[in-house]
Amino acid sequence: MLHLRAVCPSAVAPEVLSTLREHPGAANIVHFPGAAVHPAGDVVEANVAREAVDEIVVALAALDVDHTGAITLEQIDTVLSDLADEAEELAPGEASDAVVWEDLVGKTGEESRLNATFLAFLTIACLLAAVGIITDSPVTIVGAMVVGPEFGPLAGLAVGLVCRRSDLAKRAALALAAGFPAAIAVTALGAWLGNAAGLFDASAISGEGHQVDFVYEVGPWSLIVAVLAGAAGMLSMTSAKSAALVGVFISVTTVPAAGYAAVAAILGDWGRMGQSLAQLAINLIGIVLAAATVLLLRRRGAGLIDRPLPRG
């Protein structure tokens, strides 16, 4: 279940209470008249079944609560309440299949911002990938995959496109368009310093039989893996099964391809650099297309295909 808190003008509080009382998925409703200080008004709280959250939030947004006050949602790990159990049983659908769309937009929006933290993680991931390529270490490559933060903007781009949130789509696209070139440039600088210091030479990537050659080898499986990973990642983000995201991070070669491109460029292997960049592009496009398709199917299944999400 989720804990819902609505801060609203006192004049709107009766309608908020009525909305919660009438919905079978809400339980343990609490009203604090005059408790809100800024903005002044009432506070209404309730435990809400996950599969009922979207309908209730839409109803509260129709009362303009998201503009005149606030609507907040928090995940509840444990609820000991017969009324809460009854609300979960009465709410239509299954909790694990329910999508809290406003929460999804908020989550992907936060993870899609181009900021110092995002750039730092992406750069460190690319540097780790470069080390894995130079030392022919698949384990280090996997570590780089896990560290990479790129799935956040990719998911944000898919959500922005499907939910008609141009602000989110532009923010995510900017993070990807600026983040990867910056990370590749820093990685190339690091590779140049390492090469100048004699830590490695062209033999690190030349020839055949390297365990990490899969990073730059482009083929049908590149797109297949990207599509499957994008679908799994979006299913994970839109359900309660977030643990699957780790597997998504490990399955795609976005960050390793960026790291390989930087190393190959420094060593003058333009063919492998081009293949690595193609691998990067195929993975990015495949993930976004698959994630967007999953979202379209889930919105169509919920009858929300024509409803743009409100802006926070």
UniProtKB/TrEMBL annotation:
UniProt keyword terms in alphabetical order: Membrane, Transmembrane, Transmembrane helix
Transmembrane segments: 116-135, 141-162, 174-194, 214-236, 243-268, 280-297
InterPro entries (UniProt xref): DUF389, EF_hand_dom
Keyword Isomerase among record annotations: no
A Pfam family it matches: DUF389
Record domain EF-hand: where: 51-86
Taxonomy, superkingdom: Bacteria
PANTHER family assigned: AT15442P-RELATED
Name of the protein in its database record: DUF389 domain-containing protein
Protein source organism: Actinokineospora soli
